[in-house]
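Dear colleague,

Following up on yesterday's call, I've attached the two folding results inline so they're easy to grep. Please treat them as preliminary; we haven't cross-checked anything against experimental data yet. The first protein's sequence and structure tokens come first.
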Amino acid sequence: MTKALTRTGENGEKDLAPSSQSHMIAIIDPRTLIRECLALSLQEKLALPIATYPDITSWSAAQERFSACALVLLWMEGENAARCYDALRELSSSRHACLPVIILCDNPSMQSVVDALRHGAKGFIPTGMALEVASEAIGLVLAGGCFVPAHILDLGETDDADVSAQSVAPKDFTTRENQIVAALLKGKSNKVIAYDIGLAESSVKYHIRSVLRKLHARNRTEAVTKLSEIITISLSK
């Protein structure tokens, strides 16, 4: 386990010494016990240093002193949702524009996932998710991917509308490509997609290239973002 060298501030934040920050993950959550327990658990799972902050202001102040971190986990719920979206917009227009942000949420809905992605989040983790799965989701985002919880995007799982792969995808998507779209929205790797739908991994790559072409997307992350925008249109109908 990697042990982080932390400094505790007067507002309860725990940030890292400069030498520990090259691959740091920051947790921003006003609930002290929750964020510190999560930090200890993720530090053991990911073998990466974790710093915790009660709010975006404390984190921003730390970034002025130290180099930027590798990823931010930002808690969002009910009354602070608007502040989270403001923070995401601020990050996307600042020197931290390339910094991936994953939203943590206690009671997520399809709409909250879509809104978070539209505001620039690269992932969405419900706090009811198993630690093992959450760790894998963070690893995926650190590697440049995008994670959306599968149980929210499964057929018939939304409150606002029935958003299936077929209703999300352009009309010229084939049945197989609709399966690929559903898997991409759930953050699955090529290997897992191949296993789930019974194809060779090379065939999965072929279908993904076709999906990217039809969406005019350069990579998987851009494809998921475009698909989330289509979902938003479906929800508004």
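Below is the second protein, in the same order (sequence, then structure):
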Amino acid sequence: GLPSGGYRIAVGRVAGRDTIALDGVGEDGLFHGAQTLRQLIVKAPTGKPGAKPGGKPTGKAGAKAGARATVPGVVVRDWPGTLVRGTTEGFYGEPWTHQERLEQLDFMGRTKQNRFLYAPGDDPFRQARWRDPYPAAERARFRELAERAGRNHVTLAWAVAPAQSMCMASEKDLAALNRKIDAMWALGVRAFQLQFQDVSYSEWHCDADADTYGSGPEAAAKAQARVANAVAEHLAERHPDSEPLTVMPTEYHQDGVTAYRTALAGTLDGGVHVAWTGVGVVPRTITGRELADAKAAFAHPMVTMDNYPVNDYEPERLFLGPYTGREPAVAGGSVALLANAMEQAAASRVPLFTAADYAWNPRGYVPEESWRAAVDDLAGEDAATRAALRALAGNDASSLLDPSESAYLKPLFTAFWASRATSDVRARSRAATALRAAFTVMAGAPERLAATAGGRLDDEVRPWLDQLARYGRAGELAVDMLTAQDRGDGADSWRASLALEPLRGTLRASEAVVGEGALDPFLDRAVKAAAGWTGADRATGGDVTEDTRSWTVALGRARPVTA
């Protein structure tokens, strides 16, 4: 049989009838199969004959919406590579709005994710004020989140970080923590995480802790295990349908066996899961061997909580590249794999789509293919919108996982510069036209993406869209400047140069990082090439002067300049 969450689809003809058959392991499997079936449906152009399953036309004009679709004849047998796959809202900064969370849950359902961990870094009611109930309006929002999560076959999880104000040896504080967990259960939360990542080994919040546990890493581990064991026991007694408790330990990113890890492993209840981020807070790679070592050190099932694409440590950046650097064994060996999102909820869907793709099918995962599908999913069906979003994501793709940036432009840059080293006029024209077209897409991206994700994408990433558009316009001017020189048109080249200079100043002044290491080097080279054609030495001070009305340029040799 299929593993939990798996499904089968068969589309074809049975006894002369067009047939779609769908079967799944439980309700989750049926839901996952329905998502794949939805993706298989191909809409026919409006007014064209529709089709039945298997792709055969009905012969009717297609006035009915249901008749304008084809489903290819396929047999699909599919199941998840990771039992629990999902997203963490765990960044520091402005938490997502309620509407953003609702939309995220719908997105998660479509992409077969099944766990949403609520853990905003700046929510006081799960940290300093963990004892206090959420206000009534927030409680109503949690109920709505839980309802939407259930509709999308997603488990709503909640993380609490009590240790910075908790007396770990106090029965009163333990009772208060369990009351808060009961309150969250009543709101629809069905999985819980205790977070101890920012705990000191030498500071307690009551004398009883020092008397009971002493000090140091082993003392902290034993105190944390006591609290976690009490919560796990409470959940088992009061809420037996709860998912296993997860602990985020203090040493969540270190490597190997330590005194803390050994003490935690020896005292933590065997049914509790332990979270880690890989070796490093934001590791470039996570290997199966590293996971096996962590599992051996903690002696508990491991939850991989990957800090990608979260960007709170570099808020001037967007991380829109695909999920990379994780061996398939990491997905298969983790009891759960959660990707930590950016503050920009809609933009996060591009990398989160790819992380979900990896978690579902780690051995068949192809990052670039998944990334293109992710862009198309967010952009919708309009080709120009897809191209604009691909330009934004393609120029904000680099991260600690993969430093490569603007990869789709680099072949165009190479062809452009190579053509200029030849006397082939047509080759020069083709290369310049192709490159300029790419820059034009960048320049028009803000307008094209204004309505994407209901306008939320524009709201979230406007500084980066504006910077992308400026680079697009600068690229157009750079190409125009050099192609004008090819025609011998010094005046057009000079006008493009004059427009380019102040625009580059604006680019340098912006904090939004776009196309780092790719776009500026192209513009630098273009300016240098143009200066070589004119004979102007722009590198030596004093040869170019500017006043309120004009520029004065020292020419190294005679050049005709037309006005």
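For the second protein, one point worth flagging: The longest strand covers residues 7-14.

Best wishes,
A.L.
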